[in-house]
Amino acid sequence: MNNYETLYVLKPTLTDEETAANIAKIEEILVKNGAEILATNKMGMRRLAYPVQKNERGVYTIVYFKAEGTIVNELERNLKFNEEVIKYLTVKYTKQKEVTQFEKLVTAANFVKEEPKEEVTPVTKTETVTEATEVVATTPEA
């Protein structure tokens, strides 16, 4: 089985539910065809380098998976016919250095997914926040 990374960009006009449904649909295609999904990195809305189908922005998602080579053809065929996908790219990792980097990317994607979100307490207008800074002068030793 080979290591693959597929990046795809969804239209920015989709709702959160439609985006989640498209991501689940793509992952279902992989699993149905025998791929092992290692991680999914939902990068969110980002600006495109150039307009694609009159879109300046897109929702980026990366799927890291292990699969046989024939599955990639089926995945890309489905991505091509999905009207919500405006761009996609699949990368195969084969060399040892590439596989090591792939494993780091998978670990990082899983870490981001599991990281708990901190609650932010809003500062009201009546509160004032002051911060004291201390300046320490150092002299180089001769």
TrEMBL record:
The keyword S-adenosyl-L-methionine does not apply. One of its GO terms (cellular component) is cytoplasm. GO terms for molecular function: small ribosomal subunit rRNA binding; structural constituent of ribosome. SUPFAM superfamilies: Ribosomal protein S6. The keyword Ribonucleoprotein applies. Coiled coil: none annotated. Keywords: Ribonucleoprotein, Ribosomal protein, RNA-binding, rRNA-binding. It comes from the Bacteria. One of its GO terms (biological process) is translation. InterPro entries: Ribosomal_bS6 (IPR000529), Ribosomal_bS6_sf (IPR035980), Ribosomal_S6_plastid/chlpt (IPR020814), Transl_elong_EF1B/ribsomal_bS6 (IPR014717). Pfam families: Ribosomal_S6 (PF01250). Binds together with bS18 to 16S ribosomal RNA. Belongs to the bacterial ribosomal protein bS6 family. This is Small ribosomal subunit protein bS6. It comes from uncultured Sulfurovum sp. The lineage of its organism: Bacteria, Pseudomonadati, Campylobacterota, Epsilonproteobacteria, Campylobacterales. The gene is rpsF.
